[in-house]
């Protein structure tokens, strides 16, 4: 029997499309509008929201947290992802003298405590190390993750922008669930460097940032962008969807089951990403996009 009761996300699982909050501070939404944006994303089936402590100069998490505090029932319906490990020089962190990375236990724990306060929550569903720290001690990171998990402050852990060897180094010490990486029809390094192969081998779906190449896919005037855009538009006409939906479907076609992050205040843009879940591109269509991006046929 069908009801109008919103479905609860399953524990530990991210939705197949993730809402990105990197530019939340730029959208000019008041608190009520932020609540509506979250509710409309949830209505589309997007239950996961991606943050980082540094977004908006350490302000974006608090903007989202204000919305959660205004509508407390939302928290149980969504999953919160956030990242730490980058130290920015800005007014919100006067003690930072240069931009650097810090994966020490003290910094990870302090960052989580700050994110919990900003987001008005008692737990982070998924915590990611934002960038590889050249001074990282994987045993110290594993100890910090274990302490946070035991305290119930973080439920699952992963990394972002890590190479396969960097991921494996930490994964051998503590179970990770995802590597958040850049991947788009204009940025295919993850296909060549083993990152997606590792995700597939381990059965750990990668999160995908900048799936539309930061807007360059549809606004760029360089030769690569023009070639790819022409193919996407042709495929969009064939399938009766938008070119953006085809771009998301191209990413989703990879067997590692990528989770694209779409960061827009426009619900229509989120809907275009969700629509890609219903479009499975034929392999030849996928390779048409690949060929347009690379400017050559496969070898």
Automatic annotation (TrEMBL):
One matching Pfam family: Aldo_ket_red
PROSITE patterns: PROKAR_LIPOPROTEIN
Residues of the NADP-dependent oxidoreductase domain: 17-289
InterPro entries xref list: AKR_Detox_Biosynth, NAD(P)_OxRdtase_dom_sf, NADP_OxRdtase_dom
PANTHER family xref list: NADH-SPECIFIC METHYLGLYOXAL REDUCTASE-RELATED, OXIDOREDUCTASE YDHF
Protein name in UniProt: Oxidoreductase
Native species: Rubrivivax gelatinosus (Rhodocyclus gelatinosus)
